């Protein structure tokens, strides 16, 4: 059991390292060489680099030292240690990756912004899924996500608007440069949300079948899925029946549909996207309210 835990931890750090490599490569290979400033601590460090010439790795490290203290206090030591690791790796990679002879040979800044945003989004997603962070607005996003139901990409979007917009005040930079930065930001946020929330997306399945009892038993006993049966009337046949309602993860849809068809290949299945599903086995509503404090308030109110 201990060996499995060690293996899992090593695997986690290996994936985070790959994620940070992709993230830093997007900056050193596509964004910085083309004068594009994205969001986050790296984006802020890049803006300062364009303005003053201070190397990006050093400024990135300085910005994150301040934010890291705040993040560790709120999110705990475990998160803080992984973040320290990612920040150190990012600092080293931002320092040494430019020594590689390759940078993008694509002249179009729009394409470079999209590619850079896509690669960095994939990299940060790998880091997030293993409990790490590249620092900067990553820390802000995870702190907010702990107390409020919101996507990390949306937090990045609002935090980074100011960082990228500030580039317009630099000599030689125009509104066009700001737009390229925003394109990188949107690409990054979209990829991040797609990867992080892809497996969490839910669907609502309606099953119309005369063998509803067999299907319901199969789903609950063999697949351990919750099933709700609603009374129905087939208007053409004027026969009473049941409509089965199943809520599941999107990635489970194919397995459930196949199992239903094995019981009744003439069954009619309707699938709709469920925007948010809260409850056991799904998401929990994040209100930021401390349950113990709330119980004290209710107890005090009942006594008065």
Give the strand line-up of the largest sheet: 2-3-1-4
Oligomer: single chain
DSSP helical segment count = 11
**Count the strands?**
4
Structural class: alpha+beta
The global form is: elongated
Query: Which ranges are low-confidence, i.e. pLDDT below 50, for 5 or more consecutive residues?
Result: none
Number of domains: 2
Alpha carbon gap, first and last residue: 52 Å
Give helix and strand order, one letter per element, not per position.
Answer: HHHHHHHHEHEEHEH
Question: Average pLDDT value?
Answer: 83
What percentage of residues falls in helices of 4 or more residues? 55-70%
Quickly list its features:
11 helices; 304 residues; alpha+beta; Alpha-Beta Plaits; elongated; 11% strand; single chain
Explain this structure to me?
This protein is of the alpha+beta class and 304 residues long. The chain folds into two domains: 2-198, no CATH class; 200-304, 2-Layer Sandwich (Alpha-Beta Plaits), CATH 3.30.70.120. 62% of the residues lie in helices and 11% in strands. The chain has eleven helices and four strands, in the order H-H-H-H-H-H-H-H-E-H-E-E-H-E-H. It has helices at 2-31, 40-52, 56-75, 77-96, 109-129, 137-147, 152-165, 175-198, 212-221, 253-263, 291-303, and strands spanning 202-208, 228-234, 239-249, 268-274. Strands 2-3-1-4 form a four-stranded antiparallel sheet, covered by helices on one side. Strand 2 and strand 3 form a beta hairpin. The radius of gyration is 25 Å and the shape is elongated.
């Amino acid at each position: 059991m201990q060996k499995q835990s060690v293996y899992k931890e090593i695997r986690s750090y290996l994936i985070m390292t790959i994620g940070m490599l992709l993230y830093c490569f997007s900056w050193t290979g596509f964004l910085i060489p083309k004068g594009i400033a994205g969001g986050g601590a790296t984006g802020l460090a890049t803006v300062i680099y364009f303005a003053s010439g201070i190397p990006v790795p050093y400024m990135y490290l300085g910005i994150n030292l301040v934010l890291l203290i705040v993040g560790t206090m709120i999110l705990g030591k475990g998160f803080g240690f992984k973040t320290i690791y990612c920040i150190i790796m990012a600092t080293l990679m931002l320092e040494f990756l430019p020594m590689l002879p390759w940078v993008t040979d694509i002249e179009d800044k729009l394409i470079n912004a999209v590619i850079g945003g896509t690669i960095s989004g994939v990299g940060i997603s790998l880091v997030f899924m293993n409990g790490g962070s590249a620092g900067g607005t990553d820390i802000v996003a995870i702190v907010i996500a702990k107390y409020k139901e919101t996507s990390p990409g949306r937090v990045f979007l609002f935090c980074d608007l100011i960082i990228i917009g500030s580039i317009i005040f630099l000599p030689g930079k125009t509104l066009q440069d700001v737009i390229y930065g925003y394109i990188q930001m949107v690409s990054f946020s979209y990829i991040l949300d797609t990867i992080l929330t892809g497996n969490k997306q839910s669907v609502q399945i309606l099953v119309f079948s005369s063998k509803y009892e067999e299907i319901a038993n199969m789903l609950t006993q063999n697949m351990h899925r919750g099933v709700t049966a609603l009374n129905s009337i087939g208007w053409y046949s004027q026969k009473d029946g049941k409509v089965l309602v199943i809520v599941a993860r999107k990635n489970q849809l194919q397995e459930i549909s196949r199992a239903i068809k094995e019981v009744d290949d003439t069954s009619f299945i309707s699938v709709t996207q469920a925007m948010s599903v809260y409850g056991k086995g799904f998401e929990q509503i994040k209100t930021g309210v401390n349950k113990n404090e709330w119980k004290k308030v209710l107890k005090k109110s009942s006594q008065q």
